[in-house]
Design goal:
Two copies of one chain form a homodimer.
Chain A lengths: L4 E6 L7 H14 L3 E7 L1 H10 L8 E5 L10 H7 L4 H10 L5 E4 L3 H12 L9 E8 L2 E6 L9 H18 L6 E5 L10 H11 L4 E6 L3 H4 L4 E3 L2 H26 L3 H9 L1 H11 L7 E4 L4 E4 L6 H16 L2 H16 L1
Parallel strand pairs in A: 1-2, 1-4, 2-3, 4-11, 6-9, 7-8, 7-9
Antiparallel strand pairs in A: 5-6, 5-10, 10-11
Helix pairs in contact in A: 1-12, 3-5, 4-5, 6-7, 6-13
Chain lengths: ~350, ~350
């Protein structure tokens, strides 16, 4: 790896496309002098958007053409088969060809996963990719995976997710031996489904800092560095938590607006609400990593604004610096060679 | 059913036992003139607790002896096999013998489930019991099941849960044709695991008001009356939501205490916090039903206070009034006879 870090940005992904991606690129370039970005998308749209935001290309920001766009509700299989010149596909191709060290997209998660897997291929010994992100918790934050790349994960898959999550937490979170827990319905050994119980035995045999089972409330209240689960469960846990957080916020907002009395309180409570928002700002937690691939792919939330998208670029930079795919590969090899 | 409703109360269940159950009984008796309660537990403890709370037995509050106690962390299998005179077991026996119309316990969920299933037996055609409760949502509330009675539910089990949940919402929630959704990771038909997709086909063939898939955030933000899932998923969705709600509350509380300025705001914001607490008060939502059994069993939260436990008694009363087990049985029969 040279001193320079190049990130390909799918400029057309997400709800707002280049209007978010281009200003986000500028922010990220400002923060990281080593960074170079490649804006990927239809040239005329990119040129118009640059003009609109009074931005210009330069030595650290270049453009790469891509004529097609993968829409948010497009079938992943069709996006993979038919849109070989989409901004998403070309961004991933640039990583595969070594022209970029990583790519970031706010597009359709299923398509991003399918295309990444097809183009970049899986790391040796890893069967399935997983999606990981960090979430706020009472004791800092928790890395959680899989968040929806897989359903019906076997015990072996859960073991692989644990290895990948542990390496990411070590590299990005700077945690020497991240504590890893399996998400389960109870803390006793007898509870849970078969895959989870079997995965627990597999994990106990590794040199990971495996600490046993976590329950749902431990995601936000516990002090585990990494929590591992099947993608079906992870997706539902994440979305139901988002749901309750939104309901709480809406209820508070409604209550604050009810009378002149409560509106005064709202004004006085401004620092509180600001601090509250800061803790739960989805932007701070934007940027999920697709792990298990032979390259670095970061998924930004489709509705992310420019600061949040810039946060996803920062995560890509850190994964390049720490060479996360290589770290996962060598950890897996070490664990499997001991198991033999 | 006579006009009189008799509920057996496991006086020793939960974190605080009779100190919560006895005052709760008094509250419930005050609210419902038809109600009679049987306090089940060791006589000397019950007598001492009655005295402590300046309460006395009367025509509507009687006592039934039980010498043993099932602890909160006891193995369900051992509780079932070895503690045949526990307050939990005797409460369920009273329902089975027709001496009580329903029972309420704040004890160990696994033991309550195992003993209920063994003593009361399942309704004909129902393979597995399920746990259901109602949760606050942006549009009122949502009944959700299964919350942890089962892991690895088949498509047929999910269909049965849907029938049971729909009947409960109809009976208790007074909803004529409750909308029923299956919890899934995406709204498109292609997504999700095999059981959920197959269950969706089974449900489309019933006369339930089946409306398709719901995602995690729909539990708290959607307008589905009933959401159905496997117990592993349901337990984790519920607990992770509780976790995020607790984290939000703790963060707000900390922020309000930070300075004299924010403490003033907290004082002014009192009506807001009260309204907030009212919406999210776990007591309001206390009382989960064990469905699919030939009798009515209500699980109160182990940490419930007296008003919350009284709420669980109210749910038991409503289930007796509406004869929920019979309603489930006849609905199931109708659906299965049409499917034949």
């Amino acid at each position: 790896m040279s001193d320079r870090i190049t990130i390909a940005l799918d400029a057309m992904g997400g709800d707002t496309g280049p209007d978010v991606v281009l200003p986000a690129a500028l922010k990220a370039l400002d923060r990281c002098p080593r960074l170079h970005v490649i804006l990927v998308g239809p040239e005329e749209i990119l040129t118009a958007t640059l003009k609109k935001h009074a931005m210009g290309l330069n030595g650290r920001m270049t453009m790469h053409p891509a004529s097609e766009i993968v829409t948010m509700d497009e079938s992943p299989v069709l996006a993979l088969r038919r849109k070989k010149d989409s901004s998403m596909r070309v961004s991933i191709d640039l990583v595969n060809e070594g022209q970029a060290d990583a790519c970031v997209s706010a597009g359709n998660t299923g398509a991003l996963m399918a295309i990444s897997r097809f183009v970049l291929k899986m790391l040796p010994g890893i069967d399935r990719p997983a999606i990981i992100t960090h979430l706020p918790s009472a004791n800092g934050h928790t890395y959680m995976l899989d968040l929806g790349a897989n359903v019906d994960s076997s015990a072996g898959h859960l073991r692989d997710f644990a290895i990948m999550g542990s390496e990411l937490a070590r590299a990005i979170g700077n945690i020497e031996a991240p504590s890893v827990a399996l998400l389960n319905v109870g803390e006793e050994d007898i509870k849970g489904n078969e895959q989870v119980r079997e995965a627990s035995q597999l994990l106990a045999e590794t040199d990971l800092n495996y600490v046993g089972f976590a329950e749902g409330d431990d995601i936000f209240l516990g002090d585990f560095d990494v929590i591992v689960c099947d993608g079906f469960v992870g997706n539902i846990a994440l979305k139901s938590s988002e749901g309750v957080a939104k309901l709480v916020t809406a209820t508070l907002k409604e209550a604050f607006g009810q009378s002149i009395f409560t509106r005064t309180a709202a004004f006085l409570a401004l620092p509180i609400l600001t601090s509250f928002k800061k803790t739960f700002d989805p932007g701070r937690y934007n940027g999920a990593s697709l792990l298990g691939l032979k390259g670095i792919v970061i998924k930004s939330h489709g509705g992310a604004d420019a600061p949040a998208f810039a946060n996803a670029i920062d995560i890509a930079i850190r994964e390049v610096e720490k060479q996360v795919p290589q770290a996962i590969s060598s950890r897996l090899e070490r664990i499997l060679s001991k198991a033999r």
